[in-house]
Structure formats: structure tokens, C-alpha cells
Amino acid sequence: MISLNLTPMIDVVFLLLFFFLVVSRFRMTEGMLPAQLPAGTTAVSTDVPRTPIRIRLLADPKTPMTCHVSIDRFHEAPMEFATLAGTLRHIRDNTPGFDSDTPVYLLAGDDVIWDHVVNAYNAAMTAQYEKILFAGSQ
């Protein structure tokens, strides 16, 4: 009597099944979709991202009631609060690409007194900027 052992045959079938499952791709093939675009229309332009103005407020460690103000790329040296509104107005009026829609970031650390941050905000409002945002010191 001859006995057939089918165990190796079943192993081979399951191995082939597993192989085909692994190498097959279950996604849609790429193709072209036909589309009719209207003739003679122009594309809608989008606004170019604006470069923000960054005002840095740094507390003076010797006298905590005073604060140094600087504007990145425009006025790196510390200046007085009294000249901040005029400097911001000068940037808005005389620098190409900067207008009242330019975002103004107020960067102040935890050691800056809140009155200085409010005064910087008021100076930006006086210079007629519309987008004034608060940020941490960076």
C-alpha cells in the first residue's frame, strides 16, 4: 500500500498564496481624466506671502523698569519707545513691499513688563498697521 503525504504540497500552496498576496498591489492605477477647461479665462492670482516686521522687546537686567526696543533688519540697535511709531511709519511708507497689511510681530520675553508690550502695540497701531501679533521671545 502506498500512502501519500500531502503536507509538503499544502505548504507549497500556502507559500505561493502568501507570495502573491505580498507582491500584488491593491491600489488604483494612475490615469488621465478628461476635462474641458473654459477658454479665455485667466488664472486667479494669490497674494504673495508677506515678510513680517519683528519688534524685539528686551528687558534691561540692571533696571527692570526700562526696556530696549529693536526692529529686525531695519533698526537692530536699541532705540527709544518714543521713536518706535515714527520708525514703523517710515518703514511702511518708504520700504517697497511693506504696507498697512504687513504683519507686525511683538517678540517679548517673560521678563518684559506688560506696559512695554502694550506701548509697542500702541506704537504699531499709531503707525496704522492692521495685523499686530504677540509672540514669545525667539
Written overview of the protein:
The protein has 138 residues and is an alpha/beta fold. It has a domain at 53-136: 2-Layer Sandwich (Nucleotidyltransferase, domain 5), CATH 3.30.420. 30% of the residues lie in helices and 20% in strands. It is built from three helices and five strands. A five-stranded mixed beta sheet has the order 3-2-1-4-5, with helices on one face. The longest helix has 17 residues, at 7-23. The mean pLDDT is 84.
Which key terms come to mind for this protein?
3 helices, alpha/beta, 138 residues, 30% helix, Nucleotidyltransferase, domain 5
Number of strands: 5
Mean pLDDT: 84
- Strand % is 15-25%
Order the strands across the largest sheet as they lie in space.
3-2-1-4-5
The name of the CATH architecture of the domain at 53-136 is 2-Layer Sandwich
Rg over CA atoms, rounded to whole Å, is 33 Å
Detail the topology: elements first, then pairings.
Blueprint: H1 7-23, E1 53-59, E2 67-71, E3 75-79, H2 84-94, E4 104-108, H3 114-126, E5 132-136
Parallel strand pairs: 1-4, 4-5
Antiparallel strand pairs: 1-2, 2-3
